[in-house]
């Protein structure tokens, strides 16, 4: 049985360097200009907001951020959209999976506007049967409710599903729901050092095509079980 392959977008298929650049560099700059304060003041004010809302559905809403910090965050992302890039092996992997007939889903915590922006810049959409923003679900992927509602909308067998995501709390949410195969990413942003796979809680890949031998092994085990 072909497993369903569920992919995160930012930091997994796309280079998180863009998001880091927007949120950690450009947003503080624009916030400081807007509010006529120092860059340091902006950074500490934004950092407080970040801590308060991390991993919640609000955290992922550009509209919420725009209202909260007084900067049009979606426009800011459009201003620098030429920096949006796929990660190593992204298209190569997706082409390969498509050729093999895998069912691929794209599950992102980016809001619908952020998802649209990314898909306008990297042509991922044709590779996915299902594309979901957690905004339409009402919970971020860190919450088991996300997976329950997703399954109601798009039935799937969690025992035969893979979730590939760079964020540990998301993988924990998926695990609580019962997704059997969880994979993480060693280097979500090309501008930051790779994480040590031994310190990560889940099997980790660097180049995205490293997923292919993992899938081949999974398929051969599946065959072994059936023929045993
Ligand atoms: Mg991610």
What does this structure look like?
This protein is an alpha/beta fold and 228 residues long. It folds into two domains: 4-15 and 86-227, Rossmann fold (3-Layer(aba) Sandwich), CATH 3.40.50.1000; 17-82, no CATH class. It has ten helices and six strands. It has helices at 17-35, 39-53, 62-69, 73-79, 90-100, 112-121, 134-137, 144-153, 168-177, 211-227; strands spanning 4-7, 103-108, 130-133, 161-164, 181-185, 204-205. α9 (168-177) links the parallel β4 (161-164) and β5 (181-185). α1 (17-35) packs across α2 (39-53) and α8 (144-153) packs across α9. The radius of gyration is 18 Å and the shape is globular. The two termini are 16 Å apart. The relative contact order is 0.17. Residues 8, 10-12, 165-167 line the site of magnesium ion (MG).
Rounded mean pLDDT is 93
Instruction: Indicate the percent of residues in helices.
Output: 40-55%
- Structural category is alpha/beta
Query: Helix count, per DSSP?
Result: 10
Main CATH class of the largest domain:
Alpha Beta
What is the global morphology? globular
The largest sheet has its strands arranged as 3-2-1-4-5-6
CATH superfamily of the largest domain: HAD superfamily/HAD-like
Bound small molecules, by name, code or SMILES, are: magnesium ion
Q: How much strand content do the residues show?
A: 5-15%
How does the major sheet shape up?
6 strands, parallel
How many independent structural domains? 2
Counting DSSP E segments of at least 2 residues, the number of strands comes to 6
- The CATH topology of the largest domain turns out to be Rossmann fold
* H/E topology pattern: EHHHHHEHEHHEHEEH
Using the CA coordinates, give the radius of gyration: 18 Å
- Would you identify the regions where 5 or more consecutive residues have pLDDT less than 50? none
Distance between the termini: 16 Å
Q: Indicate the CATH architecture of the largest domain.
A: 3-Layer(aba) Sandwich
Keywords: Hydrolase
Protein name: HAD-IA family hydrolase
GO molecular function: phosphoglycolate phosphatase activity
InterPro entries: HAD-like_hydrolase_sf, HAD-like_sf, HAD-SF_hydro_IA, HAD_2, HAD_sf
